[in-house]
# Entry
Amino acid sequence: MTARRVVITGLGPVTPIGIGATAFWNALLEGVSGIRRVRAFDPSRFDSQMAGEIDGVEVGNYVPKSYRKAAKIMARDIVLAVAGAYEAVKDAGLRTKCMLERGEANGPSNVDPTRIGANIGAGLICADLPELAAALHSASENGQFSLARWGSEGMNNLTPLWLLKFLPNMLACHVTIVHDCQGPSNTITCGEASSHLAIGEAFRTIARGVEDVCICGGAESKDNAMALLRQSLGKRLSRRNDLPDKACRPFAVDRDGTVVSEGGGLVILEELEHAKARGATIYAELVGFGASNDACSPAQPSVPHPEGRGILLASRKALRDAGIDAGQIDMIGAFGVGTPEHDRSEAAAIRALLGERVTQVPVMAIKGGIGNNGAGSGAIDFIAAVLAMQNATIPPAIHSAEVDPACGLKLVTGKPIDARIDHVLSIGFAMGGGQNAALVIRRYRP
Amino acid sequence: MKRRVVITGMGWITPLGHDIESVWQRLLRAESGVAATTNFDARTFPTQFSAEVKNFDLEKFINDRYDEHKAASRNTRFALAAAEMAWCGAGLNAGAQVDPEQVGVYLGGGEGPIDFDSFVAAAVAGWNAEKKDLDSIRWAEVAYQKLNAVREFEQDPNCAAGHIAYRFNAQGPNFNTLTACAASTQAIGEATCMIRRGDADIMISGGAHSMIHPLGVTGFNRLTALSTRNDSCITASRPFDATRDGFVLGEGAGILILEEYESARRRGARPLAEIVGYGSTADAFRVTDIHESARGASAAMRAALSDANLDIAEIDYISAHGTGTEENDKLETLAIRTVFGSLAKNVPISSIKSMMGHLVAAAGAVELITCVLAIRDDTVPPTSNFSTPDPNCDLDYVPNKARKKPVRAALSNSFGFGGQNDTLIVRRISE
# Structure
């Protein structure tokens, strides 16, 4: 049996700068920033008061009419994933249950429900604070919470299905229900590395033959008080509150932290013959995946390996898997979160990987306008890398005009540049926990 | 040729104890790990009991470099101890030559328990009862004061996998999945695939979870998923029994060392069993209910059998998901009947959740360990608290007493909320 090839046939970004591949790509080229002073709640008391926010994501636009009521039990993270899945399925021309029931495609379906799966990265979903606070308050007197009262009556103020809003696997569960995906379904929860790991695992799952199509990627919202506080306590955030849209500056000499955000992306991976048989448009081929852990001391959870050891190992494994060497990489899709330490660590790994070619190989870093989408970040980066290859254009890192010489990368800044790209290496890592992953995308050749 | 994957080490921290052999013997004697909840004061909760891990001290397991793990949350502490037990059991601590880049981790690990008191203090202070909204300024004032950066970070579900990677210098692929109650079965299945493919030679895999905290119990109580048999908690977990009224929440960890067969043999390791089959499916039906035909569960079992290239007649034991909820037990029985046909009545099925409760994300890992022990000792553990047969559950659940019988291969099911179905098959080692 010859190896099954896996291609990318659909892209569904849901980001603060645009929803859907076209809007997202145009915003990247125009250098739009989706970061602003937080509007979801009053951020005045937080030391970082900015976020990437997405306006107007209504579940009803992305599910069959009969499923709209399920919106009640969807945390924001789930809504973003459902939106991304719809965009990706639509982009791929897959006639899933959702598209048929919405009347956006005519039957018959072009995918066997038992041969399509989901693999969606998710974060630690923060419980809806106002909802929970109201219930907890009901079990308190004069500001004193009573656990006894909570057990006997307070908890009844929560909707019976409360827990189901916040289980990380609910992103994939709703997506599989909406599109009728009965194949393997997984939920990777490895912080910011989640999307890359999910896409990489989906690549393996299709290659080994247990499914033909997979909706994969990730989504998360950190645009809520609890997530903002956690990131703030971890000292990962920019404090450039006077310039919110310009606060996140990956690899810039004056970077001072990342910015929380909401969003993600889903991607359709498909076995090549399956894609050809239904006449799908093929964006690119996925040819390499590597994963690793820094294995650094957990006593300092926010401090990455100074030389980016794990990022380098994951990248080398991905190249080996693709059967290419570093000399064949035409572009690096960097993770570039914008903290001083993480960017330094990632840059060290990229320098070690590319050797002398580090002065020639362009590096794309897009979080300046998007921020840190947690488990959804990697999918957004991956989609940008695929689009850069398809359009032979690399969008700039906005607000990173003065590149940190210590990073030593050929970061694309200012205006988009033209570039013929045959191989992209896309990098992802968790900001704590040590997980790293890398993917190699190749220009599709029949 | 397909690379074979064997289990060379096992460790668990469970409500019935902290080492493999004593817990196994207690399971065979149908003992219970269930008691009144002590992790918090649950006396007014609908469910006031659980299967807690008792008298656990991580420092006894890792007395060197303990300081680097001392901030770990409860679930991660269980995971570290179980991993240490498995790693040493596999003989990997004794100067074994392994390539750290080919050693990975794949856990089905839960989130760490929330810092409840601090969280509540901020939430109550931040709630503006007049405006019926959260005052995020007041909330943040208290939250910045009370919440601790490391404690918050350690709740992330990927933390246990990071701690383990550091402790054992496992620089290879590192994953955490959280597919609810199916998570650790799925983790072990995916880890098996990684070794088969050559992405790693050794995987530290399994799961850890603790949801025995006020919000965890609240979540399950609101779903009416938990037994409320407060007057008789030891008999509360009664899978497949007609009088079952929900599951009993447990906590703990199960970790296995998975290894490529040839390299395990070369280093002189003693393989305990071989992982031969893995299947994963989604119901794609409803978030709240299992499909009435149990299509996802039967598809997962069939996928695992096909992966293992085994016939149904070769399965000598089924470790059921068997939660003790009305719906799960009825539909799991239906799924087994669908897959095993006329043989369904002949294969012994048991649920150790009757004794150690439901370890949520960690359940599948401890159940797979039980399957390996069943093969080793040709003994099937019982389903305890079985008294009243249910016409919808009409198979052989090994009621109340362990049974000696040859076990060549065992199948283990795990199903998660939202329609996650995962099945593993382990087999006696053959040349």
Q: What stands out?
A: Chain B has a mean pLDDT of 97. The longest strand of chain B covers residues 251-260. Chain B touches chain A through 98 residues (CB under 8 Å).
